[in-house]
Prior knowledge:
By secondary structure, this protein is of the alpha/beta class. The chain is 40% helix and 21% strand. The protein has 12 helices and 15 strands. The protein has helices at residues 2-15, 17-30, 59-72, 85-95, 103-107, 121-133, 148-160, 176-185, 217-231, 321-334, 342-361, 369-376; strands at 52-55, 77-81, 98-99, 114-117, 137-140, 166-168, 193-199, 241-245, 254-260, 264-271, 281-288, 291-296, 300-305, 308-314, 365-367. The strands form 2 sheets. A 9-stranded mixed beta sheet has the order 14-13-12-11-7-10-9-8-15. The N and C termini lie far apart (56 Å). 39% of the residues are buried.
Amino acid sequence: MIYTIKKVFRYINILGLNRTIEKIITYLHNKNYIINLKFIKKFRPVNKNKFVSIIGCGNFSFSTISFFLAKESKDFLISCFDTDKKKSDSLTKFFGGYVAENIDEILNNDNIRLVYIASNHNSHCEYAVSLISKNKNVHIEKPHVVNFEQLKNLNNAMKLNPKVRVFMGFNRPFSKYTKILKKELDKEKGYNISNFFILGHKLDSTHWYYDPKEGSRLISNLCHWTDLLLHLTPYDEIFPISIIPSSPKDKSNFSVSIIFNKKSFSNLIFTSNANTFEGVRETINIQRGDIYAKIIDYKHLDIVRNQKIVYSNSAIKDQGHEQSVLNSYNSVLSNSSQPPSRKDIILTAYFFLKIDESLKNNKIIEIKEKDFLEFYR
């Protein structure tokens, strides 16, 4: 009990009171308590403009996707689907909509224009390809694929349906801290030198992340930061890419060095040996030209140019989740923004799959631009 109380107060300090309350409600959802609460009525006023469905109704769909969408529109949800029907019942009881009995109900509903996919990782691509083929826009939570065969299928589906909007669940590029950092980095000449230290959740050995068909912890977790690394690097400074593994044979603790264009270099370290208490901890250091910058837990950013502070701020944690979720929604609603290009979507997956291959085989891998473009085209 004392541990739980401490955690609640710590979350208030990090996330604010409202977000902490939402996390507590999500705990009730995860324990299947909400479906038994009589004072929550399974009813929402009819909104003819709603167009969203959700596949996968676990923790992330409830605490992040649904809560942020509900702030934008109280009646946003048409339907949801999960292989665990209790999770679907709980989500619809709290946010409205109805429980789809199978994926076909979503595929064949013409009113559904955007589907958030947050199911188990191995199923992301299969759902996405089916939906894209039905001309439905999709927001795919990370990772969007877990192997190269899936990546080929996704690439082909996007090529055949170029008008469909495909969004990724890589949220850190949407954080205000990343936007400020990238704006300052883009002013500088030279190349990036960076270090990423990530302390991930300590998982039980039976956790589904360790199921081989779900990929690996690198694919499931480190893909956030490999995507961020690409986002902070201009495309013309990327190739060739050298991937250098440096870690013991440990599925939850690993390190990899990346060299871009024989100039930029970065080291990414992931560990889950300690209990993080308040979620993922991360420290990012990056230097380019006359700038040095540090992000700590996406709660604090320092940028220094020529010994002078350009920007320094500590506030509520902002990993970009809300902006990422709402960007997809508003893009479909009002054409307010464009989704990432097919090239960017394929490249970020190609990159983390090659890193995973390098670590598993403990060998250096080099990616030439022509090899990537041959796959992409």
